[in-house]
Write a structure and sequence with these properties.
It contains 27 helices and 35 strands. It is of the alpha+beta class. The strands form 8 sheets. Strands 1, 2, 3, 4, 5, 6, 7, 8 and 9 form a 9-stranded mixed β-sheet that branches. A 6-stranded antiparallel barrel has the order 13-16-20-19-18-22. The protein has a 6-stranded mixed β-sheet with strand order 30-31-32-33-35-34, sandwiched between helices. α7 crosses α8 and α8 runs antiparallel to α9. The chain is globular and about 100 Å long. About 40% of the residues are buried.
């Protein structure tokens, strides 16, 4: 059974049991601070299990993307460990319980309609005190007691060892299902967790029955697929083996299951798949948190490649194979392959730049430890390796473990604290100090006046030298006064301000703060707790603590922000109307007349739906509905129908923003007083952000109007470049792209045809209305795989490419058209061998290799061929020997290499085919003569 079929069968089976099929949650739940990555299928239902949300359904089933690094040392070494994996699950929130869970699991595993596994190969474990589950398995299912094992709390309780060790809270026993393999070993394929207790304090009698019992099950997709497909490891199933093979091809290392390189290739497969999914969701390798995990995975895989002899980036080349293998379930991966490749390649390049020096240092450290008899890797040295060479401590620990060395984690952590660069999380930044903390203690709060005013009288309460963005380079000093220095970033804190500090997706205000003899340009405004902090530069005079001042917000910029923010609410309404209630905000960024809105949806919106959304937004703008806001109790806002976003925590009371009768949202941002003041709206793009999350980028006000004008002009300009009407732009661009591809093929094949010197027409491009121009420009951009604004430049580049390719084609044919028969005719026979050594003007490597293959096939004799083509002052050499000559001990790489040396160059290759280059074309005749003499002598010696 194919893995994709297994995934679908599981979900379909539980749908027949009344479970609602839910999509996989994102891999990186940024709204859940308790985890870096989604570790299990139940995570998206945490509030469902805890009764914190209204239950729209009480039964659910999912296939969840997960990432765990707890067993990273076992990845590639064992048959079943992964970092990234998929978890099949079915869940009950106070609905069905043990009886149904166990019976359904057995039905799905053994019924021929579903998996049809042999019941005789299945065994189970239960928690030692769970008589209820044991009875269901024995009496209800019919399993003999010999195949029902009772296990301790560290094995069959969730969380592990909870009864005795905690934590307090919901918990319960579990039952694991095992499958016996052909070799007699068994593998766990399913875990059924029965959440039925609330732990309160230490034992005894600390497990209190829950009034509402829940079910959380997890079946490893890859592990179960390996059982069904009867393969030795998860890595040999149909969705992973192609990635293993791609890794083997990219690294030029054959995949051998039991070898060290086989283990490395499996680990590379796992890590590049995990990195591909994470980077797809915009988690890039970095120094902290989830980003550090991805850096660690990439660098671990790079180190595996390095140990197999690779010295250049290679992982990024496997991303295509990952996207292709996972495409049936996660088609969105194919949309970001190029971006993901670029990110992974960049990280590879950074690590490769330092890895050799780092490994040399590690060798010295290990050598000194062996000499001195030291058994623990020094934490200071590990920190230096990380900060100087980028070697993550986990990699050093793993390499040391192979030599039976332990690792000084405490020493490493202390050293990194001294470096002020804790790699792996922000846990050391919880207790902050500095000038802002001092101001928070004294001032505590900045009064915000910006809802009703854009200017205000205020008093300077704090002056900080430095903008706080790089604590290593600025002083971040709280001072009593400061004098103008346009190059020195500063921060001012006032007792009251009309400036809006960035929050809720809306960027901070800009403007000016003026006082008696000083002027401070505000370039950004941020919130720090309850303080509003004005970033900028003092451009005039001297400012001192307690100075009176006037804070003046840039009203044009504020108005542009309000246009974009108000349009964001209207867009949210239009999405809910046209896409569905599930299309809820997952994030937003509001800048001056630019908005970016992320929302929940599994697939891309088609052009008709996007057009409907745009029309609805424009209709609401033209309706000029009033925009109002009021502070109300959270309960009253809920009764009024205000939208409450899942995962958000709201204050009480809250600020509710209403637009006409169509929109009510809880929002702390600044807004217009009428939807009509948005002026104009243009939807620029809709794209995938991550699994289940889409992004719309739109413009408002003058920027929207400018975009419309620019689109019309760009379309006209593109058509003018090709000399066609705008209506024919897509066809003309297609013809150009096809012609360029055709010329390239001719260059590779050596067979040229006639081509017009120019394919640019002379039609009047004319001018289209915006909607028509937009559609044509969009389709042309998709054809060329560029942004719409880049279409004219790309067309110009294609025309230039075509011209260069035609020149190359002309050069190729300038020396006349050679054929394999011509070259055979020019050769000489020595004994039983045909020798062809010839200059082939204008030929490229592909053509030359093709001729050599044809000569070897057509010749009745053994054959030795060396062809040369001048490339300006340089020479390209390609040579080949027939197999019988190779068996006699002759070597094409050595033969071609010697010829290249005579030309001041070098090169080589395989015994049967080789390529080299020479630097001095003037010596070509002598080099070819020498090559003939060399092969004649070699034939005589090996006759």
């Amino acid at each position: 059974m194919k893995t994709d079929e297994l995934r679908e069968k599981y979900l379909a089976f539980f749908e027949t049991k009344g479970c609602v099929r839910r999509p996989s949650d994102v891999l990186v739940p940024t709204w859940d601070p308790s985890v870096l990555f989604t570790p299990a299928g139940m995570n998206q239902f945490k509030d469902h299990f805890l009764g914190k949300v209204t239950l729209d359904f009480t039964r659910a089933t999912t296939c969840q993307k997960c990432l765990r690094t707890g067993d990273i040392d076992n990845v590639g070494r064992t048959a079943y460990h992964h970092t990234f994996f998929e978890m099949l699950g079915n869940f009950s929130f106070g609905d069905y319980f043990k009886e149904d869970t166990i019976r359904w699991a057995w039905e799905f595993l053994t019924d021929k309609k579903w998996l049809g596994l042999d019941p005789g190969r299945l065994s189970v474990t239960v928690y030692k005190d769970d008589d209820e589950a044991a009875k269901i398995w024995h009496e209800g299912i019919g399993l003999p007691t010999s195949r029902i094992a009772r296990m301790e709390e560290d094995e069959n309780f969730w969380p592990a060892s909870a009864p005795s060790q905690g934590p307090d809270g919901v918990c319960g026993p579990c039952s694991e299902i095992y499958y016996v393999l052909d070799d007699g070993s068994d593998v766990e394929i399913w875990n059924l967790v029965f959440t039925q207790f609330n732990r309160v304090g230490d034992p005894p009698d600390n497990l209190r029955p829950l009034p509402s019992k829940n079910i959380d099950t997890g079946m490893g997709l890859e592990r179960t697929a390996s059982v069904l497909q009867k393969v030795p490891t998860n890595y040999h199933i149909d969705i992973l083996m192609p990635i293993v093979q791609a890794a083997a091809e990219v690294t030029s290392v054959p995949y051998e299951y039991d070898s060290d390189n086989g283990r490395r290739l499996r680990r590379i497969t796992d890590h590049v798949r995990a990195a591909t999914f994470a980077v797809h969701e915009n988690v890039y390798p970095g120094a902290n948190g989830a980003k550090y995990v991805i850096r660690r995975l990439i660098r671990r895989a790079v180190l595996d490649g390095h140990q197999m002899g690779l010295r250049d980036p290679f992982l990024y080349q496997i991303v295509d194979a990952v996207a292709d293998a996972m495409k049936p379930a996660y088609p969105e991966l194919t949309e970001t392959v190029q971006r993901v490749q670029g990110v992974i390649r960049g990280e590879e390049e950074r690590f490769f730049a330092t890895i050799d020096a780092g490994l040399q240092r590690i060798d010295r450290i290990f050598g000194d430890m062996e000499t001195s008899g030291t058994g623990m890797i020094d934490g200071d040295q590990a920190a230096d390796l990380y900060t100087s060479y980028g070697v993550p401590p986990e990699l050093l620990q793993q390499m040391g473990a192979e030599k039976s060395f332990t690792f000084d984690w405490n020493g490493y952590t202390e050293a990194m604290q001294r470096h002020a660069e804790i790699s792996g999380g922000d846990q050391f930044k919880l207790f902050q100090t500095g000038p802002l903390e001092t101001l928070k203690e004294s001032l505590r709060h900045t009064e915000f006046l910006g809802y009703d005013a854009t200017t205000a009288e205020a008093t300077i309460k704090g002056i900080i030298i430095g903008d706080g963005t790089d604590d290593d380079s600025d002083e971040s000093t709280l001072v009593k006064s400061a004098s103008a220095d346009p190059d020195q970033p500063m921060r001012l804190v006032l007792d009251r301000t009309p400036f809006y500090g960035e929050s809720g997706g809306q960027v901070g205000d800009v403007g000016v703060i003026r006082g008696d003899g000083f002027e401070f340009n505000v370039t950004d405004t941020q919130k720090h707790g309850d303080l509003v902090v004005h970033h900028g530069r003092l451009v005039k005079g001297k400012v001192s603590e307690s100075d009176a001042c006037q804070a003046i917000v840039d009203q044009d910029n504020r108005q542009a922000l309000q246009r974009a923010h108000s349009a964001t609410h209207i867009l949210h309404y239009a999405l809910q109307k046209n896409v569905g209630a599930h299309a809820q905000q997952q994030g937003s960024k509001v800048e001056a007349d630019v908005l970016r809105f992320d929302f929940s949806n599994q697939e891309a919106l088609d052009e008709d739906k996007l057009a409907a959304i745009r029309t609805d937004v424009i209709d609401r703008v033209q309706a000029k509905d009033p925009i109002r806001w009021q502070t109300v109790a959270l309960a009253d806002a809920r009764k009024a129908g205000a939208m409450m976003l899942f995962g958000e925590k709201y204050p009480d009371p809250v600020r509710m923003v209403s637009m006409g009768e169509f929109s009510k949202e809880l929002c702390g941002g600044t807004h217009l007083t009428s939807t009509g003041d948005v002026e104009a709206f243009e939807l620029v793009s809709e794209e995938s952000v991550s699994s289940g999350t889409r992004r719309i980028v739109a413009l408002t006000g003058p920027r929207a109007k400018s975009h419309i004008e620019s689109t019309i002009e760009t379309t006209r300009k593109a058509a003018e470049i090709l000399g066609c009407s705008q209506k024919n732009l897509v066809k003309a661009a297609t013809d150009l792209a096809n012609d360029v591809r055709g010329i390239k093929k001719e260059l590779n094949s050596g067979v040229a045809t006639e081509h017009a010197a120019s394919i640019v027409g002379n039609a009047d491009p004319g001018t289209l209305e915006y909607e028509a121009a937009k559609a044509i420009l969009r389709d042309t951009a998709r054809l060329l795989n560029v942004a719409t604004s880049d279409v004219p430049d790309r067309l110009k580049a294609l025309l230039d490419d075509r011209s260069d390719l035609l020149d190359e084609l002309q050069k190729m044919t300038a020396g006349g058209k050679l054929s394999a028969d011509d070259l055979i005719g020019s050769g000489q026979t020595v004994g039983d061998c045909l020798i062809v050594v010839a200059e082939t003007p204008g030929a490229n490597p592909n053509i030359m290799r093709g001729w050599i293959d044809q000569i070897r096939k057509k010749s009745d004799h053994a054959s030795a061929v060396l062809l040369a083509a001048r490339q300006g002052e340089k020479v390209l050499l390609v040579g080949g020997l027939s197999n019988d000559l190779v068996k006699r001990g002759l070597n094409a790489g050595k033969w071609v290499g010697n010829a290249a040396k005579a030309l001041g160059g070098g090169g080589g290759g395989r015994p049967d085919m080789a390529q080299a280059g020479g630097k001095d074309a003037s010596k070509l005749p002598e080099a070819l003569d020498a090559a003939i003499a060399e092969i004649q002598a070699a034939l005589s010696e090996n006759a």
